[in-house]
Amino acid sequence: MTLSQIKIHHFRNIDYAELSLSNHFNYIVGDNGSGKTSLLEAIYMLGHGRAFRHIQSNRIIQHEKPELVLFSQIESSQQTRTIGLSKTRHNENTIKIDGDEGFRLTDLAKLLPIQLITPEGFDLLTGGPKYRRSFIDWGCFHHYPEFVSLWNNLKRLFKQRNALLKQSSNYNQLLPWDKELAPIAEKIGDLRANYCQNIFPQIIETCHDFLPEYQLNCQYYQGWEYGTPYADILYRQFERDKFINYTSLGPHKADLKLRVDNIPVEDLLSRGQLKLVMCALRLSQGEYFSEKTGQSCIYLIDDFASELDQNKRNLLAKRLKSANSQVFITAVNQAQITHMIDENDKIFHINSGIIS
Ligand SMILES: Nc1ncnc2c1ncn2[C@@H]1O[C@H](COP(=O)(O)OP(=O)(O)O)[C@@H](O)[C@H]1O
Ligand SMILES: [Mg+2]
Question: What is the pLDDT confidence band of residue 218, given thresholds at 50, 70 and 90?
Fold first, then answer.
C-alpha cells in the first residue's frame, strides 16, 4: 500500500497542499513549528479518522476555517483507490472511498495500515497497559477478521454487566450475561495470545539488531490468571466487582510485559534505547503484516533523529529501507537525513505550512 498523492485543506497551519509522493522515502524538512508533524497527522488521519495528538477536531481545523478536507490516492498491487475525508467544527465526519459515502473508520483503517513512530509514542513503553493493548489489537484487527465484531460484542456486554453489578444482590442475576461474555473474552484472549506468539520472535530479533547488548524478553498477560476459565474468575470476583461496580479482571486488563534481565525496559533503558525498542515493535509489526498479507504498511516517523546517535540512526534507516515500504520522515534539517537519501526518494521543505 502506498499513497501516490495527497491533498490537504485547512489542516492546522497547512492552508492548502497538494503533494505527489514517492513510494519509497518522503522526507519533510523544516524548522520547529513549520508544520512537519501536522503533515504526518494529516496522513494518519486518513487512516484513522482522527489526528494522533489531538482528539478535538477544533484543534486540528485551521483557525477561522469551518472544516478540514483531506484527499488521497492509494495504490496497492491490485488497484488504485481514493479516500476523501472531511471534518467540521461540529465533529461531523464525511468519509468517501472511491467517491462513495457511508463508510466507517474501520474501513479507513483496513485500507491504510499505518505504523506511527513519534516522540509521544514512548507511551507504548512507559504509559499504561492500554497503549500496549492497542498495539496488540492493531495486529488482531488486521490479521483476524472476526476480531472487530468480537470486540464490539465484548464492549457491549461489559457495559451491561457493569451496570448490572450496581443492582444485583446475588451472582445468579449476572449469570446469563457471564455465560455469553466468558467465551467471547476467552476467544479475544486466544487471538491476542496467538498474535503475540507470532510476532514476539520478530520483535526479539529486531531488538537484538538494534541493541545487541541486551536480551529482550516479551510476555503477554491476558488479563486474568492462566489456566482458570474466565467464567470461574467472574464468579470468584463477584463480591469484589460488586463493591467497585466494575469488572476487575478480564481482557480489558491485558498487557504486554517487556523486560531485560527481569527488569521492565522502561526502568532500565535510556530514552534513546527505549526509542529503538519502540521502533523494533512497530517495525516488527509492519514486517509481519507484509509477510502475511503481501501488502505493506506506511511508516510515519516524526523527528527521526531525536534521541539517536549516528550509528543507531544508520541501523534504523537500514532496517526501514529493507522493509520496502513507503516511509514519511520529518527532520529539522537536511543534514540529519542526508546519509539515507536514495534516488527514488523525495524531499519536501516546509515553511509556515507552505510545502515545496
Ligand atoms: N488549528 C490551527 N490553525 C492554524 N495553525 C495552527 C493550528 N494548530 C496549530 N497551528 C500551528 O501549526 C504550527 C505547526 O505545528 P507542528 O506541525 O507541530 O510543527 P513542527 O512539527 O514542524 O514543529 C504551529 O506553529 C502551530 O502554532
Ligand atoms: Mg513536530
Answer: very high
> What residues form the annotated binding site?
30-37
Best residue among 10, 11, 13, 63 to mutate for probing ligand 1's pocket (most ligand atoms within 8 Å of CB) is 13
Q: How far apart are CA 198 and CA 221, in angstroms?
A: 15
Q: Evaluate whether 39 touches 8 at the Cβ level (below 8 Å).
A: yes
Per-residue model confidence (pLDDT) at position 235: 97
pLDDT of residue 53: 82
- Nearest ligand 1 atom, CA 31: 22
* Cβ(38) – ligand 1 distance below 6 Å: yes
- Residue showing cell 508533524: 37
- The domain ranges of the chain are 1-113+298-356, 120-294
Please give the pLDDT value at position 321: 94
For 149-191, write each residue's pLDDT tens digit: 999 999 999 999 999 999 988 999 999 999 999 999 999 999 9
CATH topology of domain 120-294: Glutathione S-transferase Yfyf (Class Pi); Chain A, domain 2 (1.20.1050)
30 lines ligand 1 (CB under 6 A): yes
Phi, psi of 83 (to 5 degrees): -125, 130
Whose C-alpha lies nearest to ligand 1, atom 3? 62
Q: Which cell goes with 28?
A: 519533510
**In 29-67, which positions are buried (b, 16+ CB within 10 angstroms) versus exposed (e)?**
bbeeebbbbbbbbbbbbbbbbbbbbeeebeebbbeeeeb
